[in-house]
Structures are given as C-alpha cells and as structure tokens.
C-alpha cells in the first residue's frame, strides 16, 4: 500500500461486506453510492486484491476479500475500544477519600464497603483513620476527613441543629445504617448488687469511664444528667478491649454492645444489668460537601452495602 489507510474507506469496505450491497451501505453511512464505489476501488488498487465479485443480488466477498474484511472488523473494533477507554479515563473518579472508621470493621461492614468503592471507583484512593466516634465530626469540621462512620446523635456536634426549622442548614449530612442496643456489664463479683438496679442505683457503683469522644461517655452523660445523678467513675480507658479486660478483673461497670455483652456473659461470666440504652450507627459528611463526586460515590457504596 502506497497511501496511509483511511478509516472512512475501511468503514465503507466493512459495511459493504456486511450488506453485500453498495446502495444499502451508502444509506447506512450517509454517503452517495459513487463515493462508496470510489473508496472500494482505491482500497482494491492500494492492496492489489480483488475484494468482491458481482452476483445477481449484489456483491460477494472473494476469499482474499473475506480475510481482509475480518481484519478490518478487528481494526474498527479496536478503535471503538480505544474510544471507550479514553472516555472512561476522562470521566473516572480520581483522588483520595479520607474515611473515619470506628469500632470493629466487621460490625461497620468496612470490608464490603471498601470493595464496593474499589469496584465502581477504581480511581479513588482510600485513606482510613481509626478512632473514637466523636472524633469523626470534629475531623470533618477541620477538613481532616471527607466522610466517616459515627455512633450517637450527630446533633451533639452541630451548633445549628437546635435552631428553628429553616433557620440554617444543618452542618452534617447523615445516612443512618443501623440501630444498636448497649447493655451495662459488670464483673461476677458485683452480680448480687447489679441485678435489679435501675440507672440511678447503677450510677453509685464503680464505673470504668471513657473520653468525651466516646459514644459511651455521651450516652451515659446525657442519661445520668437527665436523672440528676452522678456517675461514680473510678478508672478511665480509651480502648474497648482494655475496658472489657478491666470489667473482667472486677474494676467496675461499663457499657457494651449487645452482641459483645452476650458473648462476654457466656465466655467470661460477666453480669448484664436489667437496663439498656439505644443509639444509631451512621455514615456522615459535611452537608456542604455531599455533592463532591468522591463523597457522593462513597454514599452510593454505603447504600449498596447497607441498603
């Protein structure tokens, strides 16, 4: 071939090969019949191959023409694939998504969530920052996180949440995932005084305290304040594993998620009090950023995982 291959000529050749008719090919390509015939003539001259033979119904590929048509189909398919890949790359989400994680990853379905993110947004790089629930909204405010899991009432961290409706947009966008039940657990040595006690009675017993950022602290502080009693905190920890270890050794009482409380009761003989408190697991971001592509993508992934 002396001239560079013209893709328009290639399309004309493939279309005529499929249709077996110049008129129908011209209609599909929105060209005139003479233009199609000229392209076929040039391709035959450039390749030195007889591409078609005439029949009573139209045109039929020769043996060499059929081999060349198959190769031309591959070239055009590669061109379509190239265009689709280029379009995908220009629209693909890119960048880093900083996600706040809390408690154990099995409970938050973190693995499934990250898998959903990667499958539908391979251009997004995730950075996980594990901590206590109350740290998530504060880090969102400081632009240290883009989104994160949260336990409790987000209004505790929203200065405008208590204003009249319509006065100002709420600070956080919240997707509620699940309701959780927390029980009070204590060591077997305190079983006799724990059973049958209400919240006011339990407040006087020794407790293992947690930092303000912990959902335990926020739940109990609100509850005891409403009752007008003071919690008797004798030790403080910031890790759930350490808290349970101290309960087992007899230091004091603590809140515990229902599934863990039941396991500890069976495995280590911990006593479960007759009271309980409920809260919510959510996925949150700043309201002002919900339309950011990567954050909106994260909420879509959460929806697929949690429903």
Summarize the structure.
By secondary structure, this protein is an alpha/beta fold. 47% of the residues lie in helices and 22% in strands. The strands form three sheets. Strands 4-3-5-10-6-9 form a six-stranded mixed beta sheet, with helices on both faces. Strands 1-2 form a two-stranded antiparallel ribbon. A two-stranded parallel sheet has the order 7-8.
Provide structural commentary:
With 307 residues, the protein is α/β, with parallel strands linked by helices. The protein has helices at 7-19, 22-29, 33-47, 63-91, 105-108, 110-120, 135-141, 191-194, 199-203, 215-227, 240-248, 258-268, 293-306; strands at 52-54, 59-61, 95-101, 124-130, 147-151, 172-186, 207-209, 233-236, 254-257, 271-286. A six-stranded mixed β-sheet has the order 4-3-5-10-6-9, sandwiched between helices. α1 crosses α4 (63-91) and α6 packs across α13 (293-306). The longest helix has 29 residues, at 63-91. It is rod-shaped. The two termini are 60 Å apart. 28% of the residues are buried.
SSE topology sketch:
Blueprint: H1 7-19, H2 22-29, H3 33-47, E1 52-54, E2 59-61, H4 63-91, E3 95-101, H5 105-108, H6 110-120, E4 124-130, H7 135-141, E5 147-151, E6 172-186, H8 191-194, H9 199-203, E7 207-209, H10 215-227, E8 233-236, H11 240-248, E9 254-257, H12 258-268, E10 271-286, H13 293-306
Helix pairs in contact: 1-2, 1-3, 1-4, 2-3, 6-13
Spatial arrangement of strands, main beta sheet: 4-3-5-10-6-9
Question: What's the pLDDT, averaged over the residues?
Answer: 88
Distance between the termini: 60 Å
Helical run tally: 13
Number of β-strand runs? 10
Overall, the morphology is rod-shaped
Strand content: 15-25%
Low-confidence stretches: 162-167
Write the H/E string, N to C.
HHHEEHEHHEHEEHHEHEHEHEH
Helical/strand content category: alpha/beta
Radius of gyration: 34 Å
């Amino acid at each position: 071939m002396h001239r560079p291959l013209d893709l328009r000529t290639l399309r004309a050749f493939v279309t005529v090969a499929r249709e077996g008719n110049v008129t129908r090919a011209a209609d599909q390509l929105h060209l005139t019949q003479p233009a199609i015939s000229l392209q076929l003539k040039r391709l035959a001259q450039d390749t030195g191959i007889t591409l078609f033979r005439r029949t009573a119904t139209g045109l039929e590929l020769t043996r060499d023409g059929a081999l060349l048509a198959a190769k031309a189909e591959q070239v055009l398919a590669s061109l379509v694939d190239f265009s689709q890949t280029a379009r995908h790359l220009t629209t693909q989400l890119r960048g880093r998504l900083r996600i706040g994680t809390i408690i154990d990853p099995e409970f938050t379905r973190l693995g499934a969530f990250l898998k959903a993110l990667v499958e539908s947004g391979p251009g997004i790089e995730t950075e996980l920052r594990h901590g206590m629930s109350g740290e998530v909204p504060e880090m969102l405010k400081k632009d240290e996180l883009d989104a994160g899991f949260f336990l409790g009432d987000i209004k505790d961290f929203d200065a405008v949440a208590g204003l009249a409706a319509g006065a100002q947009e709420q600070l956080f966008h919240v997707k509620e995932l699940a309701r959780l039940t927390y029980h009070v657990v204590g060591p077997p040595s305190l079983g006799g005084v724990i059973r049958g006690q209400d919240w006011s009675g339990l407040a006087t017993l020794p407790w293992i305290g947690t930092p303000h950022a912990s959902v335990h602290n926020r739940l109990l502080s609100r509850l005891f304040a409403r009752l007008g009693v003071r919690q008797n905190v004798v030790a403080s920890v910031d890790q759930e594993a350490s808290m349970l270890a101290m309960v087992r050794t007899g230091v004091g009482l603590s809140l515990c998620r229902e599934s863990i409380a039941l396991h500890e009761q069976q495995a280590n003989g911990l006593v479960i009090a007759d009271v309980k408190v409920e809260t919510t697991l959510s996925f949150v971001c700043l309201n002002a950023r919900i339309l950011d592509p990567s954050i909106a993508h994260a909420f879509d992934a959460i929806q697929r995982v949690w429903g």
